[in-house]
């Protein structure tokens, strides 16, 4: 409903909508101002926004008396260069890349290599996702791998191919272990690789068993 109220995209080179979110460069926490107060933003939402957003920057501070005039605020820039975004949108036929999904409105460009881990804007590693599937990827309910040229493959949290039978209890165990590994200091990509290795030699089982198996794969 919020996406519909905000209006659809008018330029393939720009993110679908604009919501002012402030992120601290030091601690990484994000907030949004409303009603004269600053409210915290869910880290998941901030992570999704970092994939495909418009960066406004920080305006210069008000100068002291006698100082040089205040410099104008920096121009807004897209997280992903507009030309790159347009190319990726056209490559993926302006619809979500998840098999069977026909959503073609309010699309986000997702970085398969997380920005927090140094992921670049290489078109080969950018995938078009609808809001629901983009959120699923960032909550670890869905994993994506592959390239734009070779095609992207999607898996459920428990490792099964997207569209096939999925075990919800096993998926919950995997997501719990992924969270535990990241809490230990493992990057999201590394945590997923360790869990995948553990799943290759057995089933998800309980969280404790899967976590131990994943750590043995280090």
What's the mean pLDDT score?
A: 82
How would a textbook summarize the main sheet?
Answer: 3 strands, antiparallel
CA radius of gyration is 20 Å
Beta fraction of the residues? 15-25%
SSE-based structural type: alpha+beta
Q: What is the share of helical residues?
A: 25-40%
Q: Care to count the β-strands?
A: 9
* Biggest sheet, spatial arrangement of strands: 1-2-3
Number of domains: 2
Poorly predicted runs? 60-68
Element-level helix/strand string? HEEEHEEHEEHEEHHH
Tally of separate helices: 7
Which of globular, elongated, flat, extended, rod-shaped describes the shape? globular
The termini sit apart by: 43 Å
Description:
The chain folds into two domains: 19-56 and 78-156, no CATH class; 168-216, no CATH class. The protein is α+β, with helices and mostly antiparallel strands. The chain has a three-stranded antiparallel sheet with strand order 1-2-3, with no helix packed on it. The protein has a two-stranded antiparallel ribbon with strand order 4-5. Strands 6-7 form a two-stranded antiparallel sheet. 33% of the residues lie in helices and 17% in strands. The protein starts with a helix and ends with a helix. The chain contains seven helices and nine strands, in the order αβββαββαββαββααα. A hairpin with a 3-residue loop joins β8 (142-147) and β9.
In short, what is this structure?
The chain is α+β, with helices and mostly antiparallel strands and 218 residues long. It is 33% helix and 17% strand. The protein has a 3-stranded antiparallel sheet, with no helix packed on it. A two-stranded antiparallel sheet has the order 4-5.
